[in-house]
Amino acid sequence: MQQTLLLDSSYYPLQMIDWKKALTLFFTQRAEVVEHHQDVVIRSPNQEYQLPKVMRLFCKIKKIQSVKFNRMNVFYRDNFTCQYCAGKFKSIELTLDHVYPKSKGGKSNWINIVSACHDCNNKKADKLPRDCGMHPLKKPKEPQWIAMFLLKLSHHEKHIWSDWFASKSL
Ligand SMILES: [Zn+2]
Question: 96-115: per-residue pLDDT in tens?
């Protein structure tokens, strides 16, 4: 089943929601439909509804969302690219590497963790970047929520959403 993109009142993307939540928001008059999915219809016994593709809440969400720090989100941030050899990998072929080694007090957070393939991870082991000459391609930092959102969309169903995002400036 296709999903619905939920925006706040200022057209800021909030999250992807399923059709049940989308229709609930609509019927409780908390959101309006901006655009429908073509050819996706939800049928109840006596009516049918076109599935909303994009919905806009009537209220504005002020809170800036932060990206949860976890394994998959680090891979997304690094675009599934080993930060040492620049190779592209699947998530199961990647590991999390502490740039500043854990054994030397390095923390597990956005600014000290990068994606690394198993080979590079083994090669680097618990050495400091300057000692082994292995530096991450990009200095790791916390990703912006909106950039992450678009990056995730680009991995899933990009074709469905690309026209929409191309036509709107975020
Ligand atoms: Zn590598």
Answer: 999 999 999 999 999 999 99
pLDDT at 78: 94
One-letter identity of residue 83: Q
The pair of three-digit structure tokens given for residue 156, joined into one six-digit string: 């899933």
Q: Do 85 and 116 have their domain in common?
A: yes
Considering the domain architecture, whether residues 54 and 91 belong to the same structural domain is answered as no
The residue segments making up the domain with residue 103 are: 71-132
Alpha-carbon 51 to chain mean position: 23
How does pLDDT run across 15-43, given as a tens digit for each residue? 888 888 888 888 888 899 998 888 778 78
Query: 127 C-alpha to center of ligand 1: Å?
Result: 15
User: Which residues sit with Cβ closer than 5 angstroms to ligand 1, an ion?
Assistant: 82, 84-85, 117, 120
